[in-house]
Amino acid sequence: MADSEAALLEEDRHFVRLLRLNRSEKKNALSDEWGWAILAAIERAAHEDAIWLIGIAGEGDAFYSGVDLAPDRAGGDDAFGLSKQDGHLDHLGWVGRLLPAL
C-alpha cells in the first residue's frame, strides 16, 4: 500500500488534518487500494484528540474524477479485484464493493 499512501499527503494545520489527493496524473481517480488508504487516514485522524476537522483537497487540475477503472497490472484483474469472468457477469460489481466502504 506504499504507492497509495504516497499518493495521499497528510498535513496538520492547528486542529485541522488536511488530506491531499496526489494522483494528478490520474486526475485523482479512486482505485480500490487508494480508497482504503484514504479511509485508514480518516480513521487515524478521527482517533486523535488534537484533530477537530478533516479536510480533503485534490492536487493538480482535478479534485476527483471518479473511480479508476484501469486494470490491475499484477494479475490482469480490474482495479476492484473482479476477475475477468466476474467483470463480464456483473460489469457494475465494483459499486457494491467500494461504495458501502465510503
Write the layout of secondary structure elements.
Blueprint: H1 2-6, E1 8-13, E2 16-21, H2 32-46, E3 53-58, H3 84-89, H4 93-98
Parallel strand pairs: 2-3
Antiparallel strand pairs: 1-2
Explain the overall architecture.
The chain is of the alpha+beta class. The chain has a single domain (2-101), classed as GMP Synthetase, Chain A, domain 3 (2-Layer Sandwich), CATH 3.30.300. The protein contains 4 helices and 3 strands. It has a 3-stranded mixed sheet with strand order 1-2-3. The model has no long low-confidence stretch (mean pLDDT 75).
List the keywords:
single chain, 102 residues, alpha+beta, GMP Synthetase, Chain A, domain 3, three-stranded mixed β-sheet, 4 helices, 31% helix
Highest CATH level, the class: Alpha Beta
Mean pLDDT: 75
Poorly predicted tracts of residues = none
Number of DSSP helical runs = 4
The total strand number stands at 3
Strand content range: 15-25%
Summing up helix and strand content along with how strands pair, one would put the structural category as alpha+beta
Query: Roughly how much helix do the residues carry, as a percent range?
Result: 25-40%
The arrangement of helices and strands along the chain is HEEHEHH
General shape? globular
CATH architecture: 2-Layer Sandwich
What CATH calls the topology is GMP Synthetase, Chain A, domain 3
Distance between the termini: 18 Å
**How many domains, in number, for the residues?**
1
Radius of gyration: 15 Å
Q: What order do the strands of the largest sheet run in, or round the barrel if closed?
A: 1-2-3
Largest sheet features: 3 strands, mixed
